[in-house]
Design a protein that fits this description.
alpha+beta, 4-stranded mixed sheet, 34 helices, 45% helix, 17% strand, globular, RNA-binding
RNA sequence: GGGCGGUUAGCUCAGUUGGUUAGAGCACCAGCUCGACAAGCUGGGGGUCGAUGGUUCGAGUCCAUUACCGCCCACCA
């Protein structure tokens, strides 16, 4: 950049790549991103929702981070000590799954072959690579994070917080071990939470089987029929249930149906009526038999469980619905959530786990099924039942779509399984998080999201926190099963002593296991309930950091082993706002930056993450101890929209519709990406971004369809050449150039950036010899007062909008002002003055000032371009201002946020300017419709009242500059030139003298059309004003407004008729 | 089954507390190589605001019903 002429080398198009590279490193070198506690300033802090290290960022992240950076940059300019703390999440299951899958694909290795340490090493490498990539992406986007404070949920500081939290919760009894049915992922061989499961309809069958009754009395059924979609689970059945009061249950079912029928829409009524008839029929046909079965259940009748040689009880339980199927239901407590509940009510029936962790059948089933995977076992069971005559494929099997749970991570079907798990007790913790929102201490914006948050928490379901993974925070518990009471008490004695000496470091719990004893004998046979032999008890010890190595060795020497499991990823994420600031140490950072100012995230994780951060903050961050203002992690949560593709589907890599922000940045620039995001972030709507492939050969866009988005190669329909996509795997595909996935949605923003660039270029080209100085009011021209008035309003609007997270409003306000007012009017009007020696100095001061303020308002959204221009502006006009002249900051990043000056707002000037704009538009309109070439000068006059004439008078010179038209006269006495075209506006008429130019026919036709239109409006308005109701009941001012409007329209009509007559006469 | 959101121009979307003749960008049409900008400038065409009913002097906006789309939660032997 040559310092003499900062504008000389400016290209006509904004070079976003150059600006990005240059200014990001400039900011970083100056240390603007870094924040330190500073008592002299108010803090403003945001912790990033840490992206998963699973993969690279997509447009959803780009949106999330853009919105954060906009606030961060604005607050920094507003003088806050601003911290944006970045980091990444280890994302336990997701990341391990990705690395494992790759391992299998590329090296044909399973994690068991590699070993725990080996796998973890691999994942760390993956993590390092992706963390670097993610941070690179954030930097490309211009994110002003404090990189010196980058955290990782698995780093030592976060791990310390995890261990402390676990220990405290364990000590308080809020963490316990329980046997629960979990969602078992047989591929990853871990339990996954309900939130990591998705349901997908698959084709399946609904089978009906008969179980023989043992020793039925005469007249009693010899078989009961049960139905299932998972036949193999019958090997784990421990009962069959029938409703304890079938008649009552039918009554209730009917009552419910009738209730629904009453308020059901007509369309659904026939269906409901049919269901009611169905119940009536059941009452006739089936009720006696069900009651008989119920009585048999009470008597303790047993059934023969086919294929197993076991006998299982018939029990009475309300889970069996008499209105469904046969009215009887098989009970498999170890593999079905509802059956599990039945077991809780009927402990004596027991539970039998029939699955190994890899999804094959275990030793609890007859030998011939052992080792089979579920699918094969299912076929075998069905075949054997048929052979036994208990199933008839002709009549007992109906095809059916089954909504099957799948693991989100491995995409394989979930098997419900009974396992020992660690849980966090949620009753109190959930309540505290609910209170935080209901009391208004935490505001969720938009507030409609509060409902889902509260509903979810109100269930207070305990949180299973263990994962059978290797990638994560290993659970800090050492356990030891003990065989008998004596040994147990011996250990307890020892541990009690250790605990008493250091209650802050050691806690223990004894889990007595004999409550499961009766589960072990089912049908007279001993079965394993879980994967280990049940001892007398298990002793669990949790150790906090600071415990001596001897203590741990002591435990380990006595056979205590640390849990193999790791914690749910959300456990560490829940601590993010305080763990990243140093908790549990009493750091200056925690004291200064906590609570953070706002959390910006998407709606998918309001419950999983936001709720847990709130309750963990409340639990962990003691106000007094840490000297913080509040225990809550934040007081505001802003939920932003989701990015969807053109089909309204969420973007994801697995669908192939994901857009890499870097592709957008390369094509449109980071500024356009950011401004586009802000522009699209409205309150209610998700953001639709239709995506296209960009042909690498001809650069043309090809619509992305659901078909072509999953292909490894696509043929460009313009140049007929092939290019590769993210799915390319074969060498021949990979050899092709890659077609980027982009979206035209960012064109608006790119064009806007370019417009700003060129307006800035104009300003810089015209600021030579800039002489700073205050400008007094009497030196201001109309357009100056106008632009200052508008600027004051815009500043206020943008500031208000950002304070309320109305990003789109802020962006649109700036877009409209910059383009339609600053560029289209102010810049055009000031051109002449900049060429005039006498007016130049003031005009330059105004231009520099308005540009300065506009740049600052835009900087949070458009950081690179504004900095680039700011630096150049700083060279020609280092000191600038209108009311006060000040030295400009060395970077726009640290320049003060503009203040809106209400004294500058001038409605009169704005009204005057509005008149000018109307007249100008009228003249241009006439030129266009009469087809007069832009080069041909026009003459025009305006008939209006004296006041309007006075307003327009000072604007005279601008008409020739902006419309190549010379005003002849303004005033009430103005007469229409004989051959003229006119536009009638409210209160004034514009006549363009068209002698020698006019196309009379066209003008006559036009006038006729206009008259017709006006007549229509007038008729409508007269009708309205004749309505008594309107005149009497509407507010007087509204009625008056209508009357004025009518009078105005009538005047316009009269004028139009006059012109028409004259035109017709002149023909 | 429960909840939330959406439906406005060919496409993507704005539309404040109900109040003149409903807006923008893209696309389209006509005309502009005027020294900031063709990623631009000037002008233009295009919408019975998903449907029905209601409240109101007045409804894109409020209420009810309804259709369709999307998302979330729960459940489905």
């Amino acid at each position: 950049m040559s310092s003499d002429t900062p504008a000389a080398d400016l290209p006509k198009q904004y070079d976003h790549a150059a600006a990005q590279e240059r200014w990001y490193s400039f900011w970083e070198q100056r240390g603007y991103f870094h924040s330190e506690p500073n008592a002299a300033r108010q803090p403003y802090s945001i912790v990033i929702p840490p992206p998963n290290v699973t993969g690279a960022l997509h447009l959803g992240h780009a949106l999330n981070n853009t919105l954060q950076d906009i606030l961060i940059r604005q607050k920094r300019m507003q003088g806050f000590e601003t911290l944006w703390l970045p980091g990444v999440d280890h994302a336990g299951i997701a990341t391990q799954a990705v690395v494992e899958r790759r391992l299998l694909q590329e090296e044909k290795l399973t994690r068991h072959e590699l070993g725990r340490q080996g796998l973890v090493d691999r994942i760390w490498k993956w993590k390092d690579a992706y963390q670097a990539r993610i941070i690179g992406q954030l930097k490309q986007m211009g994110c002003s994070c404090d990189w010196q404070r980058t955290r990782f949920t698995l780093d030592e500081q976060c791990a310390r917080a995890v261990r402390e939290t676990f220990f405290q919760l364990f000590k308080e009894g809020k963490i316990y071990r329980g046997k629960r049915l979990v969602n078992w992922d047989t591929f990853l061989q871990t339990a996954v939470s309900d939130d990591e499961v998705f349901h997908e309809a698959v084709k399946g069958n609904f089978w009906h089987f008969k179980y023989p009754v043992v020793d039925p009395k005469p007249g009693e059924p010899t078989h009961v029929t049960i139905a299932t979609t998972r036949p193999e689970t019958m090997l784990g059945d421990t009962a069959v249930a029938v409703h304890p009061d079938p008649s009552g249950a039918l009554d209730q079912a009917e009552l419910d149906l009738r209730q629904r029928l009453a308020d059901a829409p007509a369309k659904e009524k026939p269906d409901l009526e049919k269901q009611i008839d169905d119940i009536a029929e059941r009452r006739r046909e089936m009720l006696p038999r069900l009651e008989q079965l119920r009585d048999m259940a009470r008597r303790g009748v047993k059934l023969e469980l086919p294929l197993t040689g076991r006998q299982i009880p018939l029990i009475a339980d309300q889970w069996a619905k008499p209105e469904l199927g046969s009215g009887c239901v098989k009970i498999t407590p170890a593999h079905d959530p509802n059956d599990y509940d039945v077991w809780q009510r009927h402990e004596e029936i027991g539970a039998i786990n029939i699955l190994n962790v890899d999804g094959t059948l275990n030793d609890n089933v007859p030998e011939k099924y052992r080792g089979l995977v579920v699918k094969k076992a299912r076929a075998a069971v069905v075949a054997d039942l048929e052979a036994a005559g208990l199933y008839n494929p002709e009549t007992d099997c109906e095809p059916r779509d089954i909504d099957l749970a799948h693991s989100d991570r491995s995409k394989t079907p979930i098997e419900p399984m009974l396992m020992d798990q660690w849980f966090v007790k949620m009753d109190q913790l959930a309540q505290s998080a609910m209170d935080a929102v209901t009391s208004g201490q935490v505001k969720i914006i938009p507030d409609r999201y509060a409902k889902g948050y509260l509903d979810w928490l109100s269930e207070k379901r305990d949180w299973p926190i263990g994962r059978q993974l290797w990638w994560g925070h290993r659970i800090p518990v050492w356990s030891q099963p003990v065989a008998d009471k004596y040994t147990c008490e011996h250990f307890m004695g020892q541990l009690e002593e250790l605990h008493k000496a250091r209650p802050d470091l050691i806690a223990y719990r004894v889990e007595l296991d004999h409550d499961l004893d009766n589960a072990r004998k089912v049908g007279g046979v001993e079965y394993q309930v879980a994967k280990i032999e049940r001892p007398y008890a298990t002793i669990h010890v949790s150790i906090n950091d600071g415990a001596s190595q001897q203590t741990i060795r002591l435990l380990e020497n006595q056979g205590f082993l640390q849990s193999e499991d790791v914690l749910d990823t959300w456990f560490s994420s829940a601590l993010w706002p305080h763990s990243t600031l140093g908790w549990p140490e009493q750091t200056e950072e925690l004291k200064y930056y906590y609570p953070t100012s706002v959390l910006i995230t998407n709606r998918d994780i309001i419950t999983l993450w936001v709720a847990r951060m709130i309750l963990m903050g409340l639990h962990n961050v003691d106000k007094k101890r840490y000297g913080v203002r509040d225990s809550l992690p934040f007081h505001e949560v802003y939920i932003h929209p989701k990015i969807l593709d053109g089909y309204g589907e969420g973007m994801s890599k697995s669908k192939g519709n994901g857009v890499d922000p870097l592709d957008v940045i390369e094509k449109f620039g980071a500024d356009a990406l950011r401004f586009g995001m802000a522009y699209l972030t409205t309150e209610t709507q998700d953001v639709r971004v239709p995506v296209e492939f960009e042909c690498p050969h001809c650069q043309k866009l090809i619509e992305q369809t659901k078909q072509n988005r999953v292909l490894p190669r696509v043929k460009c329909k313009h140049c007929q050449k092939d290019f590769s996509t993210q799915w390319a795997e074969k060498a021949e595909d990979k050899a092709l150039p890659r077609g980027a996935v982009v979206s035209e949605r960012f064109e608006l923003a790119r064009n806007f950036c370019n417009k700003l660039w060129n307006a800035s270029r104009f300003a810089l080209l015209n600021l030579e010899g800039f002489d700073p100085g205050q400008v007094s009011d009497d030196e201001l021209m109309v357009e100056d007062s106008w632009v200052l008035s508008r600027l004051s309003t815009v500043t206020q609007q943008v500031t208000d909008a950002l304070a309320e997270y109305r990003y789109a409003d802020a962006a649109r306000t700036l877009y409209d002002f910059a383009w339609d007012e600053f560029c289209s009017f102010y810049v055009e009007m000031v051109k002449g003055r900049l060429q005039d020696e006498r007016q130049r100095v003031v005009a330059q001061r105004l231009v520099a000032h308005v540009l300065d303020v506009l740049l600052r308002l835009l900087h949070p959204m458009i950081p690179f371009l504004t900095e680039d221009v700011w630096q150049r502006l700083g060279q020609v006009a280092p000191e600038r201002g209108v009311d006060t002249v000040e030295q400009a900051a060395e970077s726009i990043m640290v320049a003060p946020w503009p203040e809106s000056d209400p004294a500058r707002r001038d409605p009169e000037i704005e009204a005057q300017f509005g008149r000018f704009q109307e007249v100008l538009r009228a003249v241009r309109d006439i030129r266009a419709r009469q087809g007069v070439a832009p080069k041909t000068p026009l003459r025009f006059s305006v008939r209006c009242d004296a006041a309007t004439a006075n307003l327009l008078d000072p604007m005279k010179d601008y008409f020739s500059a902006m419309a190549n038209a010379e005003p002849v006269a303004f005033g009430p006495e103005v007469a229409a030139p004989p051959l003229s075209a006119n536009v009638t506006l409210s209160g004034l008429e514009v006549y363009v003298d068209l002698a020698g130019l006019i196309d009379v026919e066209a003008e006559v036709a036009r006038k006729r059309q206009e008259i017709e239109k006006l007549t229509g409006f007038i008729a409508a308005k007269e009708k309205k004003l004749q309505q008594k109701n309107f005149v009497e009941r509407a507010p007087a001012e509204v009625v008056q407004k209508e009357r004025d409007s009518l009078a105005d329209l009538q005047a316009q009509l009269a004028a139009a008729r006059e012109v028409l007559e004259r035109l017709a006469g002149g023909r």
